[in-house]
Amino acid sequence: MSLLEVHGLGIAFGGLKAVNDVSFSASAGEIVSVIGPNGAGKTTLFNMISGVYLPGSGKVMLDGRDITAANPDRLARLGLTRTFQNLQIFQEMSVLENVIAGFHLQEKGPLLADLLALPGSKRRSAAARAGALSLLERVGLAKAAERQAGNLSYGALKRLEIARALAVSPRVLLLDEPAAGCNAVETEEIDRLIAELAKSGIAILLVEHDMKMVMRISNHIVVLDHGEKIAEGSPEDVARNKAVIAAYLGAEQEEAADADG
What we know:
By secondary structure, this protein is of the alpha/beta class. The chain has a single domain (4-260), classed as Rossmann fold (3-Layer(aba) Sandwich), CATH 3.40.50.300. The chain is built from 10 helices and 10 strands. Strands 6-7-8-3-9-10 form a 6-stranded mixed β-sheet, with helices on both faces. A 4-stranded antiparallel β-sheet has the order 2-1-4-5, with helices on one face.
């Protein structure tokens, strides 16, 4: 059984179908990329899987459990979390504090104990700090732990957001354009990090416009166009698919026409 299963997901906004009848799956340790031209429905699909949108049809299964109607907080506790295309970083906080904030979903102690700084609260705080430092080491940011997050490079901020997502110990991690805006060196660092996370057993669901990166690290690719799945398979199969080629060439031609106009 696949760890994540998406069955016939669909949603419409104002009568317009943004995503229609999309199905695929991801297993532990697998990198599955969702690609397609701008407006293909990739982020909308992510939003349904991660509990931001309630699908109009279909369902999402996590390890055999129906999680379609679960909100993002509950999904995180069940082992599914995500990063966003636009950074969700606390710029004024330290790098370490940003990751510690990600541990709040795992905290089960009573509010009163935290308010009174009782021993149980202190133990949780110490555990969160130790866990955050370990995650910063994992993403290559340990030396920047005490720096203000807003002073990091864009690529480092992307890795910081991944570290914070890892604080909930996900089994499925959704990454929405983790290399967007990064230079070649930063992209290579994120590429290597994603591969290492997959090797640790996490199922990675990736939306990314950098096709070189997608083709290099993906085990399986799902292609959307106008909300419909038009192809899926290995990177090699997708690269040769005529429908995929036509979809991307069509998008480029539209952009060129808009520029000329």
